Amino acid sequence: QKMASGDEGTKVLAHLSFSSSIDPAFWTVLSELKMTKLKLESTPQPLCALYSPAAAAAHRSEQDGGGDEPAVAWMNLSGESLDIEFETSRRSVHAGGTVMVVNTMDAFKDIDKKDHLNKAGAEMCAHVDSGAAEQDPSLLVRCEGVVFSDLKNYKHVYWFAFPALCPPVPPVLAGAPAPLSTRLASADTRQLLHRGVQQLLEASSTGMPPFFVVDLAGSGDVCTVRPFSDVQAVAAGSNEWWLAFVDPSNLATNPGWPLRNALFLLQRRLKLTAVTVLCYRDVLDAKEPPQESRSIVLQVGLPAGDPSATSIPTAVGWEANAKGKMGARIVDLAPFMDPRRRAVESADLNLKLMRWRFLPDLDIDKLARTKVLLVGAGTLGCNVARSLMAWGFRDLVFVDNGKVSFSNPTRQWLFEFSDCVDPARPSEGKPKAQAAADNIMRVVPNMKARGEELTIPMPGHAVMQASLAGVARDTARLEALVDEADLVFLLTDTRESRWLPTVLCAAKRKPCVNVALGFDTFVIMRHGLSDPSAVAAGGCGEGGPNLGCYFCNDVVAPMDSTRNRTLDQQCTATRPGLSAMASAMAVELAVTLLHHPLGCLAPPDQPGPPLGQDAEAAGLGKLPHQIRGFISNFSSIIVTGHPFNHCTACSPPIVSGYKSGGFDFLLRSFNEPDFLESTSGLKQMLAAAEDMVDDWEEDGDWDDDA
C-alpha cells in the first residue's frame, strides 16, 4: 500500500493489511464442527489466529518499486485455530475473534459486512475507553470471519476481516523510517532490548503480547522493555520511550496492520500528539539478537481531533480477494483430497445431516462399531447389507455355503456377471459369502467385511458318520461367529436353517432379527431375550424370553422342508420388490432396537395411530415385535407374538439343554425326529391336549333331537 501525501515533510501513515493464510486442516476441523456440533446453528464461534514478525530477509522499498519478495503480512489459521485452549507457538501473536458459519449461500450474501465489522470495532473501542485494552493489548488485534461451507462438494466461500478503528484524523509519518541499528547504535543496548523481549515472551502464557513499551533512560544507553499496561506511566515520565509492536509487515517503510489500533488508543485515551514506534521484526524466541536487525523505527505524528469526541468510530479491515478487490474468496479442496477419504466422508454425509434436525440423538459411532452377522448371503442378505451400509454399519460378516449362479445378479445386487464364474473352478460360481464381502468393500472403502463359507446343520437333516467332523467344525465356527457378533440377521431360504442360529442367539443373549418371505408376503421380527435380572411373569416362566421367536408359533419341530420341492419352491419365487421392502424395514427395526435404552428387553409397541410428523419428538419411532407385510394390497400390520413355553428353539429346556450338552445335544436335535418335541415338552403338551379332547368327547351329553 502506498503512502498518501499530507503536509510538507509528512505523509499519512499507510499500513500493510493482513492476508489470511489458511491451512487445509482448518477447513477439515471447521467442516467437522459444522457437521457434528453446529448443524443448523450460525452462532459465531471462538477463533484464534496467529501472526509473526516479518520473515522476509530483504524488504521491499517504496523507492525501488518492490523486489523479489511480495508485500504480504500473513494472518495464519490452522486446524488448531478453532480450539481456543491450544498451546500457541512462542514465535507468534494471538489474534482472537470469531467465525460465523452460515447455512446457505444466500445467507452469506445477506450478511451486512459493514455492520458486522463495525460491531467488532465497537467492542474494541469499548475496551479502549474502559482501559481493558491497556491491561490486555491482545484485545486490540482481532480476526473475524464469515463462511459458507458446501460440505457435500468440499467448497468453502469465506471472507475474513481484521478490524481497525479509524481515528478522526489519521496519523502521519514524520520523516523517513530508520533501521533499529541507527537508533540504538550500541550493541549492548540492542542486547538489552532483545533480552527484554525474551523476558516478556517468557512471562506470557499465550504467546507474545502484540504491543509493549521500550523505556530509554539517559541518552538511550539503558533500554528497558515494559508491558503495554505501563504505557500511561511511561508516557507521563521524563524518559524517552517507544511504542513497540510485533510487526508482520515486510515493507521497508510501512508498518503492519496491528499498529493502527494501538495508535488509535494513544490518540483517543492518552491524547498524545506524537510517538516513536519500534516495528519489531526479529525472531521472537532467538537465543541471541540477530547480527543485522530487520526492525525499523518510525516517527509518527498523531494529529489532534475533537478532544471531546466520544463517538464510536467506524472500522475497516475486510481483506481483498485474489483479484485485489473487496469480495469473498473460494477454496475448492475436492481436487486435493484423497478419493478414498472423500468416499468415506460422503458415505456418512446423509447420517450426519439427519442429526441436524430430525434425529439429533442418532448414535452414528455406535452403528459403525456394531458387528453384524448376516446368516444368508442371497436376496435377503444382499438387500439387508445395502440398508446396513446406508445406515453406517461398517463391520459385516456373511455366512453362506452357496455359489453365485447366473440367476443371482438380477435379484442380488452384491453380485455381478463376473461372480458367476470362479476362476479356480470354471464350472462353478464364486462362493457367495466371500463375493458379497469383497463387493461391498468396493462400494465403501472403510467397510470391514468378510465371508464365511459353511453349512448350517439343521434338524431333520441327519448327520452321517462320514460328515460328522465337518458338521462339528461348522457348528463350532457358527458358535464363534455368534459370540463375536453384536447383532444377528437370519436371512436363509429354509425354516430349519434358522433353528441353530436362533438357539445360539437365545443362549448367548444376542439381538436377532429374522426376515422371511412368501410369494407376496413377508414377516420381520425381533427375537426376545431372557432377562437375567428378573423372573419373567407367565410365558416361558423363569429365565424365558420376553418375546416370541420365529419358532414360537409352531406345534411341531422343524423338519426337512427341502424334500419333494418343485423348482419354483426350490428357488423361493417371490415378487421382485418384496425382498428390498422387507430388508429395508428389518434394518430400520434393528436400528431402532439398538437405540432403545432397554435394547432387546424393550416391550413391543402396539398398533395404533401414527406417531405424527414431529420427527424430533418421535425419534426413530415405534419398536414393534413383528411386522407382517402384504404386497398384494400394499399393507402391513404390527403383531406381538408371545413366547411359547414349549418352543423348540428358545424355551428354557432347549436353551439349558444346549448350554449343558453342547454339540451332543445339537447332534441329537439333528438326528432324532422327536428329540426337540420331547425336550421342550411340546410332545407331552400335545398328548395332554389329545387326552382332554378324548375325555370331553366321552363325557359329552349329546341331544340327538337338538
Helix content: 25-40%
Oligomer: single chain
**How many helices does DSSP assign?**
21
Judged by helices, strands and strand pairing, the structural class is alpha/beta
Rg, nearest Å: 39 Å
Unreliable residue stretches? 1-8, 56-66, 535-542, 612-618
Termini, distance in Å?
Answer: 116 Å
Q: How many strands?
A: 24
Largest sheet: 8 strands, mixed
Strand content: 15-25%
Shape: elongated
List keywords for this structure.
single chain; 706 residues; alpha/beta; 8-stranded mixed β-sheet; 32% helix; 19% strand
Report on the structure:
The protein has 706 residues and is α/β, with parallel strands linked by helices. Helix content is 32%, strand content 19%. The protein has 21 helices and 24 strands. Strands 1, 8, 9, 10, 11, 12, 13 and 14 form an 8-stranded mixed sheet that branches. An 8-stranded mixed sheet has the order 19-18-17-20-21-22-23-24, sandwiched between helices. Strands 3, 5, 6, 7, 15 and 16 form a 6-stranded mixed sheet that branches. α12 (379-390) crosses α17 and α15 (499-508) runs antiparallel to α19. The protein is elongated and about 130 Å long. The N and C termini lie far apart (116 Å). The relative contact order is 0.08.
